TrEMBL record:
Pfam families: AA_permease_2 (PF13520). Keywords: Membrane, Transmembrane, Transmembrane helix. It is a multi-pass membrane protein. It is found in: Membrane. It comes from the Bacteria. The chain crosses the membrane at residues 12-34, 46-66, 87-112, 132-150, 162-182, 202-223, 235-263, 283-302, 365-387, 399-421, 427-447, 459-486, 492-509. Coiled coil: none annotated. This is APC family permease. PANTHER family: ASPARTATE-PROTON SYMPORTER, PTHR47547. It comes from Gluconacetobacter entanii.
Length: 540
């Protein structure tokens, strides 16, 4: 008899998963974004953080339903593939692996940039580029992350819990101290919203806010390793979002209120990010709080490093899921029998991380591209959830979003707006690459005679139409486009277009859908009357 295939070890508790989610959200975003967002929006940046939290919460609730029903490793690429066929699996695998692997490097680079303010020889210039020593330190940190991730999920969770608790304590200390230096006039003297409502939209998309919030999917990535996932995943997801939003809003209030009035006298909030590029460290030093600046530097090294470690584990599981979707090399779909982790996928993740640490632009320059790629990977979840409601009504949903008819399209519209706000310079090539990838993928399947070509095209044509339509709207819009459509008419057109695409995608689920039985190891065909599990339903 052949030995049993290795399986994931279900050992993550609610505390482990909540700290994993909060740790993924709370990385380098809080270290850089406060002054960057304030320079874009002014004191109304507080509204931007609240708006970003609400947008991500909507998407998070959709993921709660999907992950509770189908708790699988790398679920964020599996759900759209189940609903709409192999093109979505391949496309999201491609997008998500690029976004996540580059994010690992962004977090390590952020930690090295902050460490460079105290340790000479790590940073080469004012742009934040590394010296040879700095680059070697980054690779050494990445190697340490690899070691943790191939040692088993229990070791990974223990390390993350310790790091995340530390990551929470320091920001709360910063908030408490800076509020003692609050200047109420900072919120009104130079205007609460000096750059208009459109600035809020830009701050949410390219200002670092969505980038800072997007830590939901690491929870989904480890779904196969969670105890009682039907209950644990929804609770951990919502707790992570609320906790992160609470801390982010308080940090922005503390930053805006504690900026010395003299720094605002010449130009108001415009350019405050150049005066305080490392906002909480710089403002602490300006206020004569050297000890607080030192605490921020320590956390600035620990916090993004911890987040990068989470994304290394998540990327490995996404590669594993991509491999099992049948649209990536099957060799990477292997689990290490000793530690029950995707070891081969972890080494590929390490290689990608090293690649992204080659001489590329600094943190701020990468935010727009990575944020857009990340939100794109999130955007298809609402369509997949709605399509599964139609095609597989018998699928047991322990967590059920009762207002999916409203929340589904609204979530997709919000995600589409955030992508649109990224601007033409980013989307002109990001969407073009994805559109070209989709066409090439379908062409290769047609030439090979793989699968049901007619059904593949029927169930996924809406995706290609979405990319093409968003390209046209971005070119015609006011966000770095040619301004053929005035603002906010361009936003309205994106909302209408996204709504139409949602309805299209909702009604063209793949007819050859194969959903797994969460109580078994093999997939089964899904019919409208199939019930996979018998769990109590939690509605929201």
């Amino acid at each position: 008899m052949a030995p049993p295939s290795p399986a994931f070890n279900r050992s993550l508790s609610l505390l482990d998963l909540t700290l994993l989610g909060f740790g993924a959200v709370f990385g380098s975003g809080w270290l850089f974004a406060a002054s960057h967002v304030a320079a874009i929006v002014g004191p109304a940046s507080i509204i931007s953080w609240i708006a970003g939290g609400i947008a991500v919460l909507f998407l998070g609730l959709i993921y709660c339903e999907l992950a509770a029903a189908l708790p699988e490793a790398g679920g964020m690429i599996r759900y759209p593939a189940y609903a709409h066929g192999p093109l979505l699996g391949a496309l999201l695998g491609f997008i998500t692996v690029i976004a996540y692997s580059s994010l690992i490097s962004i977090e390590i680079i952020a930690a090295r940039q902050y460490a460079g303010s105290w340790i000479p020889g790590l940073t080469a210039n004012s742009a934040g580029d590394p010296t040879l020593l700095g680059w070697a330190v980054q690779v050494a940190v990445l190697s340490g992350m690899l070691r943790i991730n191939i040692s088993g999920v229990k070791t990974f969770a223990l390390f993350n819990n310790i790091i995340t608790i530390f990551k929470f304590v320091v920001p709360m200390l910063v908030i408490g101290v800076l509020l003692l230096f609050l200047h109420p006039g900072n919120f009104t003297t130079y205007g609460f919203m000096p750059f208009g409502w459109q600035s809020i939209e830009g701050a949410v998309s390219i200002g670092g806010i969505i980038f800072a919030y997007l830590g939901l999917t690491p929870i989904i990535a480890v779904a196969s390793e969670v105890r009682n996932p039907q209950r644990t995943i929804p609770i951990a997801l919502t707790l992570s979002i609320f906790l992160a939003a609470f801390v982010y809003v308080l940090l922005q209030v503390a930053f805006v209120g504690s900026v010395p009035a003299g720094m605002l006298a010449a130009h108001g909030w415009a350019g405050i990010d150049r005066l305080l590029p490392l906002p909480f460290h710089d403002i602490a030093m300006t206020l004569g709080l050297g000890w607080l600046g030192f605490a921020v530097v320590i956390d600035a090294v620990v916090s993004p490093t911890g987040t990068g470690n989470i994304y290394m584990g998540s990327t490995a599981r996404i590669i594993y899921a991509w491999s099992h979707s049948g649209t990536f090399l099957p060799w990477f779909g292997h689990l290490d029998p000793r530690h029950s982790v995707p070891r081969r996928a972890a080494f590929l993740t390490f290689g990608l991380g090293v690649f992204w640490m080659l001489p590329f632009p600094s943190w701020e320059a990468l935010i727009g591209v990575v944020s857009s790629a990340l939100i794109m990977s999130y955007a298809f979840a609402p369509v997949a959830a709605a399509a599964l409601r139609h095609a597989a009504p018998g699928l047991a949903r322990p967590f059920r979003v009762t207002c999916i008819r409203v929340m589904g399209p609204v979530s997709f519209m919000i995600a589409s707006l955030i992508v649109f706000w990224s601007g033409w310079h980013t989307l002109s090539w990001l969407l073009s690459v994805q559109l070209l990838f989709g066409i090439i993928f379908l062409a290769i399947r047609a030439l090979r005679g793989t699968g049901n070509m007619g059904e593949d095209i029927r169930s996924s044509a809406w995706v290609l139409a979405y990319f093409a339509g968003m390209l046209v709207l971005s070119a015609c819009g006011t966000f770095e486009g040619y301004a053929i459509m005035a603002h906010p008419f361009d936003d309205m057109m994106v909302v209408i277009f996204a709504g139409l695409i949602f309805v299209w995608g909702e009604h063209v689920a793949h007819r050859d859908m194969q959903l797994p039985d969460v109580t078994a190891d093999t997939p089964q065909a899904m019919t409208p009357d199939t019930v996979i599990a018998n769990e109590p339903v939690v509605s929201l």
